[in-house]
Amino acid sequence: RVVSGLYFPYMDYVHRPDVKINSSVVARDCSDWRIASEFSRRLNFTPDLHAEPDRNFGDYRDGQFTGIIGQLQREETDFSTVIGTTPGRLKVINFLRTYPPDVFVITSLKPALLPSHLALVRPFSGEVWLSLLVGVVAWGVTVWVLQRAWEWAASGRVAEFSTTLLYGWGALLERPPPDPSVSASGQMLMGWWLVFCLIISTGFKSSLIAHLTVQGKSPTVDTFQDLVDKENWRWCIEPWFYTGAVFEYF
């Protein structure tokens, strides 16, 4: 007695209209039945093929398996056609590999083009933009404090905080206002800041040109972790797989 579930091209069958037993089926040409036929020819037995009524591969419930695995566990059938292995199933039945296992892949929509209105901010990541914002403010505060110290020590003029802050932004945009520094330490900070702005602006422009030349696309889903990291994404599968090894694996 052979129990099976419809799983083309590995197993395919039709119900026998001349037999009162509803589970009795006739196999069509498929890979599993070719293997079973070769076994029967060499070992001299006649396979009696039956379909699992609920197309259930087997769930573990209350110490017993349902479906095909349950029939094998209760010794109601001798062997089955293609079925997946799980740690629980390996405890109650033996498996025989007759061909390479089927490969399951994740299918999703093709990568879409990224929004064009975000092209200006895409060259840098969010962390880099935040670091630049913090850096400009910190640099402006440092220059302003040095100017205040210079005013206290040498009674010189002092630049306003807004002036130093706007100078930092202007240098990043390659449109710096007049140099507000009045001391040697302030001029040194201005010089290093201009070098830093040159590096940042050069990197931004080259990355922007690259992004505009080859428009970016949304990332693909290649692993289960990628699927988990996607917000508001759900996975789906054929309903009859919900009682199989695929559901347990997911």
Our count of helices gives 8
Rg from alpha-carbon coordinates: 36 Å
Give a quick account of the main beta sheet: strands, pairing sense, barrel closure.
3 strands, parallel
Going by helix content, strand content and strand pairing, the class is: mainly alpha
Write the CATH homologous superfamily of the largest domain.
Periplasmic binding protein-like II
Proportion of helical residues: 40-55%
Specify the overall morphology.
rod-shaped
Assigned CATH class of the largest domain: Alpha Beta
Q: Which strand-content bin applies to the residues?
A: 5-15%
Provide the residue-averaged pLDDT: 82
Question: How many domains?
Answer: 2
Under the CATH scheme, which architecture of the largest domain would be assigned?
A: 3-Layer(aba) Sandwich
Reading the helices and strands in chain order gives EEEHEEEHEHHHHHH
Strands of the widest sheet, in order across it, are 4-1-7
Terminal-residue CA separation: 32 Å
Number of beta strands: 7
CATH topology assignment of the largest domain: D-Maltodextrin-Binding Protein, domain 2
- Low-pLDDT runs: none
SSE arrangement:
Elements (H helix, E strand, L loop, with lengths): L1 E3 L8 E3 L9 E3 L3 H13 L5 E3 L8 E2 L2 E2 L1 H7 L5 E2 L6 H4 L35 H29 L6 H12 L11 H30 L10 H6 L15 H5 L1
Parallel strand pairs: 1-4, 1-7
Antiparallel strand pairs: 2-3, 5-6
